[in-house]
Amino acid sequence: MTDIPTQAFHDGNAIPKFGLGLWQVPKDTCADVVRDAIGMGYRLIDGAAMYKNEEELGEGIRASEVSRDDLFITSKVWNDGMSYDDVRKSVDDSLNRTGLEKLDLMLLHWPFPQQDTYVTAWKALIDAQADGQMTSIGVSNFHKDHLDRIIGETGVKPVLNQVEVNPRLQQSKLAQVNDARDIVTQSWSPLGSARSFDAAPIKAIADRTGKSPAQVILRWHIDIGNVVISRSGNPDHLRANMDIFDFNLTDDDLTAIAALDTGERTGPDPDTFNGLD
């Protein structure tokens, strides 16, 4: 079984550097996917209220043969509940739906700057953490001004910022912003909808290492210092996605992949996205 390394947080806790994301995993298969992934060695499972499969996430955890203490479970607060009371209720609801007593990490899913309540929402997560409802707190899709505002107004830094990262949207400047604040960068949509699978550097590395383009890209996330979550409901793909810890990319590989960055998103822009329209 693959021994997945961990990434330390500034709060003294740590997260597995690779895990399973549950965005768009259907409700009717989610519990089995979670159970099977845990059986294969996955320990980080990334969920969210908006994914509409938190109940099944909990079922998969309970169906596995791995102790809850050995798992790292994330959820997220959705944009339709960003007031203080709504965030506290969202945390309660996620715990109730999953059947867990405590989450390892809770994130604000988007800043939703047009509503301008993300500082209040962050204060609610701080209090929920103080009340023991989760071990660590972080954010998702936050830019520099969003991060600096919540830190400046509360004095509490997120442990992690989960953002879209793939070879065509590398977010190196945002990663530097995170690093300067001791915030871990976590990649979502790490394969970028397979848009870079046929890129010459990816194909060359795959040919040299005997790995697939997907494995090369997932390894790239690890080698640039990010935590990464991938998604699949296919058992063969789940195993293959995790098989990335027996090789490394060279400095020349990293330079070649860096040239693939076009700044093109597969998801929405955090400065304008509200998720409710």
UniProtKB/TrEMBL annotation:
Q: Which UniProt keywords apply?
A: NADP, Oxidoreductase
Domain of life per record = Bacteria
* Pfam families, sorted: Aldo_ket_red
Q: Which residues form the NADP-dependent oxidoreductase domain?
A: 19-261
Q: Which SUPFAM superfamilies match?
A: NAD(P)-linked oxidoreductase
Q: Which Gene3D superfamilies match?
A: NADP-dependent oxidoreductase domain
Protein family (similarity comment): Belongs to the aldo/keto reductase family.
Specify the protein name.
Answer: Aldo/keto reductase
Species source reads: Loktanella gaetbuli
Lineage of origin: Bacteria, Pseudomonadati, Pseudomonadota, Alphaproteobacteria, Rhodobacterales
